[in-house]
Amino acid sequence: MATAFMLAWPYAIPRVMSSYYWPRDVQKIGPDHYADKNDWMGPPHDTNWTIVDVQRNPDLTCDPKVWICEHRWRQIYNMVRFRNIAGNEAMTNWWTNDYHSIAFG
């Protein structure tokens, strides 16, 4: 939701970041201390630590157990297109009901 709002709001240059899957493995390592066993895995890579290419599915999504590819989510790429068309036009018709809802034109 925040990414869609950022792309709709006419301010600065928006940037959408994508990420990779991080398998969390939190284990107890002391009487009152827990830590993620996978504390640094890095992005998907081969044995030489070269980052592997993203493999796309026919619907342009990625394997969610490797790359997350938020920028390819339909909702996000549609908002990128909206931002490209709207550009930095002034925001108008601000509305809020003071209860976690907003709208603007």
TrEMBL record:
**Sorted alphabetically, which InterPro entries does this protein's record hold?**
GH
Highest taxon in the source lineage? Eukaryota
Per the record, the similarity remark reads: Belongs to the glycosyl hydrolase 13 family.
Matching PANTHER family: ALPHA-AMYLASE (PTHR43447)
Name of the molecule in the record? Uncharacterized protein
| Species per Swiss-Prot/TrEMBL record | Oppiella nova
